[in-house]
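Annex B. Sample input.
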Amino acid sequence: MANIATFGEIMLRLSPPDGELLFQSPVLRAGFGGGEANVAVSLALLGHRSRWISVVPANPAGEAALRELRRYGVDTRAVVRGGRRLGIYYSETGSGARPSQVFYDREGSGVAEAGPGAVDWEAALAGMDWLHLTGITPAISAAAAALTTEAARAARARKMTVSLDLNYRSKLWTYGRPAPEVMRELAALADLVTGNEEDCQRSLGIGPAPEVSGGRLDSRLYADLTAEVMAAFPNVARIALTLRESYSADWNRWTAVLRNRTEFLTGPIHEIRRVVDRIGTGDAFAAGLIHGLTRPGGGTDAEALEFAVAAAALKHGIPGDFNLSTERDIAALVKGDRSGRVLR
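Annex B, continued. Sample output.
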């Protein structure tokens, strides 16, 4: 299996039970999550040597977050202890016509206040072959953006593969620099880019055609968009975009496309009639794709795409940030077992 590092922020996640409104319930469930940490957990469960790099405060919340990652086999030895606090986010799961919502309280977090030089990249990336980044961490603050760019450059200098999930978050880009100014620099350092059509538009300034932005699940419409991204960033060997049709908060259709330097591929469509938790599905997709591209014995890009789509489809049925599906679980869905029957 591969040696894969991720860099980013983890947060305390607080959410009400059973689809209730955020402050309707007197109880909030506590967990942890963050795009890059979610990917690290998935990759560890899929058998990879997975390392998560970050800046985490030396307090009980920080300790609990690290214990949670280590519980799933994630290597946290490269985590820098520092910062005043662990960020928090509140998650409210939607139902029917009521959409899911996320509220952030992460100002002053360890990663937000860290900047270039906070991480010894020579030590943090030692023994790693791949670095995964997202557009979430550079959206937090100018300092975090500079540190993320430093990470990407350090990985390129070591001839590592770099993947970038664009992950545009409108509530985070508030410190003055527009997202494309930061994200285009990161995309120019990436080998693999993932995201969706809005991410391309908001993060890279590459706008989809009107019929694409309308949310139709017609993968053929994404052929031109993916080609345009690869033309703008010649270093990108692959781009994969997820496609979602939302009939309600509970009922979605899901698939993805992938373009490499020779072909445009479309994944299978999964109809999800009961969405338990959408958060982390893009991270499950990214981890599944990385796994498919790096697993022993190799495989085609089409097989990697199919595996990634299935991994994300399963995550829709798992509460919390992490995709706890195993390779066996995902492989069963790839082979066509969509019945949901009890396995005895």
